[in-house]
Amino acid sequence: MPKKSVENTAIRLKAILEILATQDPSNPGRAGRADVLRRALEQVPLEGPEADFLASGVARGERSLVTATTKLVKAGWILKEGRAGWSITAAGRAALADFPDVEQMQAALAGTGTSRGATTPAETRSEAVLEDALREPASGGPGGQPHGSHPEDRYEGPSFPQPQAVAVAGDFGAPLGGENWEPADPAVQLGFDRSDELWKLSVDLPAGDYEFKAALNGSWAENYGRGAHFDGVNYSFHHAGGPVTFLYDHATHTVVTKPDGT
After folding, report:
1. Helix, strand, or coil here: 239?
2. Rounded to an integer, what distance in angstroms lies between the CA atom of residue 2 and that of residue 131?
3. Residue 207 in contact with residue 239, Cβ under 8 Å?
């Protein structure tokens, strides 16, 4: 990842802490996770390659920011609340006071920060650690594994918590040999690709107009519709017939359909 993108992501992480610090944790109407991310991106807009869209339909810089927020969780600075909420902890508020500079906060997230006003380690060291956490996964070969990788030696699990299962449950279950609108049907289950941390399913569908939602863990308890909204309206698409690939990104709850099957 370019140095500028790493710096921008670090500034956005600090903005997330600052936004959460202004909210009353007892207020049920406080901003949700998606709104906090949007506000951080408004403060530090995407620029250059950060604005390029990935296969999931999400901008590269936004995906990097979502992935990087796991550093705030692991540091104990924010807590995840429910499906779409965050709250800042006492340690997170202290971090804002102890590490007023972005460089200091980077070093602290890398485990090398000290106290307010202390000299941070070499900039290259803190950047290298943060960049490793934010780097986009390498392109995968067959089976979703990075080329030349040895998953039993290198893979340490996804950088973002993932569900146990993801399905595209809709009105095309029957044409695939299953049931329509059945989130537990094997015919509409996506597979997790470790190389880019996306859930994927490629199938052949006859020509027609279809609707569906992304349903998690074999039920409708957690599902996402158009615009990545929880329990939102159905996704809909027209298909000319033939191969189609569904891509689900759990970091953003977005589903993309690629009719060409690529």
Report:
1. strand
2. 9
3. yes
Terminal Cα distance for the chain, rounded: 25
Q: What is the DSSP string of 91-109?
A: HHHHHHHH--SHHHHHHHH
Q: How many Cα atoms sit within 13 Å of 60 on the Cβ side?
A: 16
- E strand segments, the chain: 78-81, 85-88, 166-170, 191-193, 198-205, 208-216, 223-224, 235-239, 242-249, 254-258
pLDDT by residue (tens digit) across 182-211?
999 999 999 998 877 889 999 999 999 999
Dihedral pair phi/psi, residue 165, rounded to 5°: -155, 150
Integer Cα distance of 128 and 124 in angstroms: 6
Q: In the chain, which residues have pLDDT < 70?
A: 1-3, 25-30, 81-84, 112-160, 260-262
| Nearest C-alpha neighbor of 201 from the set 232, 169, 228 | 169
In one letter, which amino acid is 156? E
Contact predicate 67/86, CB 8 Å: no
Paired tokens of 146: 């990075």
Nearest residue to 103 via CA among 6, 22, 1, 21: 6
CB distance 187 to 173 below 8 Å: yes
Full-model pTM: 0.53
Side-chain half-sphere exposure of 195, counting CA atoms within 13 A: 15
